[in-house]
Design a protein that fits this description.
- By secondary structure, the chain is an alpha+beta fold.
- Strands 5, 6, 7, 8, 9, 10 and 11 form a 7-stranded antiparallel sheet that branches. Strands 1-2-3-4 form a 4-stranded antiparallel sheet.
- The protein contains 4 helices and 11 strands.
Amino acid sequence: MLVNDELEIGLIVVENPGNHPGIMHLMASASHPKYFPNGIIESVVGTGHSLEDQANTALDNYINSTFVTIMDSFSDSHNPDLDFMTIVNDKEVLWHPKLGTLTVQGQWIKYPEGEPFFDLLKDKIHNQLTTNKINWLKIYISKRAEGEIIGECLFNNIPWEVASNEIFNYAKTWKMTDEFHGLKQFIMFRRCDGYDEVNG
């Protein structure tokens, strides 16, 4: 599927015999010939009594967690409170973070406030950003009541160990109120158009 003649969206249902019959596992890829030709890969699940319901909830999950943020990255709109500056090739560059919705899993007595992932990683992201117009960050972390923590942090599809350590340490501080807690977020970083014009 093509969006605006450039953004290509691909969807694949992942067959897993171990899945509950009410769950659909969907892999989604968004690729752009200039900004992310190798694609932004996302894994989502849908639930329901029918295949149609499962597909619809999986697509809703993808649209709300990832697709809307990807589309927002093509706009130079921004939140000044989140913007930050870096030096790229000896030039100042202003970046506009585009924060996707923080998806919460499990029954929390009190949900995390603000933007916990961005606050944890904003000072470390400066050294990760490439010269590309658009960079992205995918974060997932979960914890079970017995203490098991599972997660990943991918920057431009590549595992980012420093960030993974940060979010694992963050999950260790959670006070469990249920058998399972999880957090997931997708973030884009767009280089400011104005600074491109000024700095060439």
